[in-house]
Design a protein that fits this description.
Elements (H helix, E strand, L loop, with lengths): L6 H38 L3 E9 L4 E11 L2 E16 L1 H4 L4 E16 L8 H11 L15 H6 L4 H26 L3 H16 L4 H61 L6 H32 L2 H10 L19 E12 L2 E11 L2 H4 L3 E8 L6 E8 L7 E19 L6 E17 L2 E15 L7 H11 L4 E10 L2 E8 H45 L2 H20 L4
Parallel strand pairs: 4-5
Antiparallel strand pairs: 1-2, 2-3, 3-4, 5-6, 6-7, 7-8, 8-9, 9-10, 10-11, 11-12, 12-13
């Protein structure tokens, strides 16, 4: 009789099953936990920590508890952490080396939370982060302590003195050139010789032949006189034109002291120009930090969404099984190696709890051909009437466009530090903000616009009793609401951010009132001192210019002699 059961084989199978069960029970969860921490930390550049991992067979899925992902740029904070996540995995696709998750849930999702210990992977990283924290915009409140006029003039290069010196040289050169030109013109001696010839013609008498000879000589004499006279007239016109030009330059130099005063006031005293500087001073560093953080994580995530398709196609053509590589075959409905079809998440923010979904998280969008989309919102929250954040990331083709939108209504903020200064700190105690913004990234080019309207603003008290403190107190006491807007354009690694706000104009106006009396006194003192300093130089200019009158008189004298000679010839 045949034995239907081979007890040796059954026993071996039972042992294998038992060992597999033991391995699964005692080791598989830790292996998964350790691998998530290892490769997650490598990808992020900071510690990824998982308290517990649980892989289940029926249904096939994975649960993770208390996951923390440290911020590589701030190791004592987490970029994100969540209490629990659960996901169902398609077992059939896993056998084809594809991780396809139909649905995933996230609970207790929070951002930018504090850590108990550093999340840095190395000491070198800590130093780099510390260095980054020391970077500032370089902007500060203007100095309200006005310098003394005497000190300003001691190191100032006055444009008036420079222009007066240059013009004095011009006048002296013009005088020298005209003296040379006078020597080249018909002089009085030559003109006197014409007069003697005319008188000789007038005194002589004779017959008809003599009369005809006189007429011929008179005509020749007249031509010579008119030729010389034309040279003198041309010179007189040229001289008049140059003299007028020099007079205009003297008038300009005379007006320069007032311009010197204004220029020095702009340089050393409080100027009403530049309201945008106050906006950048109060909001610039924070705006730059927020935008830099967003771009950093955007650029960190994108390669994982784009990855694989190009390499996979190359492998399909160039690799063969004989070389020990995985051979990829084209699929009728291709799927990427990794895909989470839907994530349902609950997010805990300072404003309250949001809920939403993320769809199509994949390791290769070009293969999937679909955009990653997200939509989170919450209404009637603890600190806001509405918060929503939506968008899409689509890198399934080269000509991609990613879109992000944010919107809040009556978002109640408090304890916002605008200006970190030991002498003059500026902090919003409380306010209600309506924020709306959108951003697009197309082919690596960023275009973003975000605006916030803050109502019922209450600033903290400004310490101190000096001029700067008084200026700030005056300015902030008049502000109950303000609007701020940021416009960003450029590439992801080289963009320009323009900030504008109504608070900047308010600060400028209020501070200008506080220092206006001091500025007026300084301006008056500068005017007196500059006038006294340049007065002698301007008088010297006028004296040099008056020296041109002798040349004018000489030209006029020669013109008169020539005109008289022409009159004497009229009898012939």
């Amino acid at each position: 009789m045949k034995r239907w059961i081979r007890w040796q084989g059954l026993l071996a199978f039972a042992v294998i099953i038992a060992l597999t069960g033991i391995f699964w029970f005692f080791f598989v969860d830790n292996i998964i936990k350790n691998n998530i921490e290892k490769y997650g930390s490598k990808a992020v550049g900071a510690k990824v920590e998982v308290e517990e991992a649980d892989l289940s067979l029926i249904p096939f899925g994975l649960k993770l508890n208390n996951v923390q992902i440290a911020n590589p740029n701030a190791p004592m904070r987490n970029v994100v952490e969540f209490e629990r996540t659960a996901m169902s995995i398609e077992f059939g696709k896993l056998l084809m080396r594809k991780v396809i998750i139909d649905e995933m849930s996230l609970e207790g999702l929070r951002f930018n939370t504090e850590r108990q210990n550093s999340g840095a992977l190395s000491k070198k990283q800590k130093k780099t982060v510390a260095a980054e924290k020391d970077k500032k915009s370089g902007l500060s409140l203007p100095s309200f302590e006005l310098p003394q006029a005497e000190d300003i003039l001691a190191k100032a290069d006055l444009k008036t003195l420079e222009a007066a010196k240059e013009l004095k040289n011009d006048i002296q050169n013009a005088k020298s050139n005209w003296q040379k030109r006078l020597k080249s013109l018909p002089d009085k001696e030559k003109l006197q010789s014409y007069k003697e010839r005319i008188e000789k013609l007038q005194s002589s008498s004779g017959g008809i032949a003599d009369i005809l000879g006189k007429a011929k000589e008179a005509a020749s004499l007249k031509n010579d006189i008119q030729s010389d006279l034309a040279q003198i007239r041309q010179a007189a016109n040229d001289f008049k034109e140059q003299k007028n030009e020099l007079q205009n330059k003297i008038n300009t130099v005379t007006s320069l002291p007032a311009k010197d005063v204004n220029r020095l006031m702009d340089k050393y005293a409080f100027s009403p120009a530049g309201a945008e500087n106050y906006t950048r001073l109060l909001f610039g560093d924070k705006a730059a930090d927020y935008l830099g953080t967003v771009i950093y994580w955007y650029e960190k995530i994108i390669p994982y969404l784009e990855g694989g398709n190009k390499q996979q196609n190359e492998k399909e053509v160039t690799k063969t099984r004989a070389e020990g590589e995985m051979v990829y075959f084209r699929e009728k409905e291709p799927l990427p190696r990794f895909l989470i079809k839907t994530v349902k998440a609950d997010v805990s923010l300072g404003t309250g709890d949001l809920s939403g979904t993320i769809k199509n998280i994949t390791s290769s969008q070009p293969i999937l051909g679909k955009a990653l989309t997200f939509d989170f919102s919450g209404k009637k929250l603890d600190k806001a009437d509405l918060v929503s954040f939506t968008g899409s990331i689509d890198h399934s083709s080269v000509n991609y466009t990613d879109i992000f939108k944010v919107n809040t209504k009556n978002y109640r903020v408090n304890k916002i530090i605008l200006l970190e200064s030991s002498k003059l700190p500026v902090k919003i105690e409380k306010a209600a903000a309506d924020i709306g913004g959108n951003a697009e990234v197309t082919g690596g080019k960023l275009s973003m616009n975000i605006a916030a309207m803050l109502n019922d603003v209450n600033f903290s008290k400004i310490p101190g009793r000096d001029i700067a403190a008084d200026a700030l107190k005056t300015a902030l006491s008049e502000i109950s609401d303000f609007r701020i807007q940021a416009d960003v354009n450029g590439t992801l690694d080289n963009y320009n951010m323009k900030l504008s706000s109504t608070i900047g104009q308010n600060l400028k106006n209020a501070m200008n009132k506080v220092v206006s009396s001091q500025a007026a006194k300084l301006k008056d003192e500068l005017r007196k001192r500059i006038t006294a300093k340049v007065e002698t130089n301007i008088e010297n200019l006028k004296e040099e210019y008056a020296g041109l009158d002798a040349i004018q008189k000489e030209l006029n004298s020669r013109l008169k002699i020539g005109s008289d000679l022409t009159g004497m010839l009229s009898v012939f």
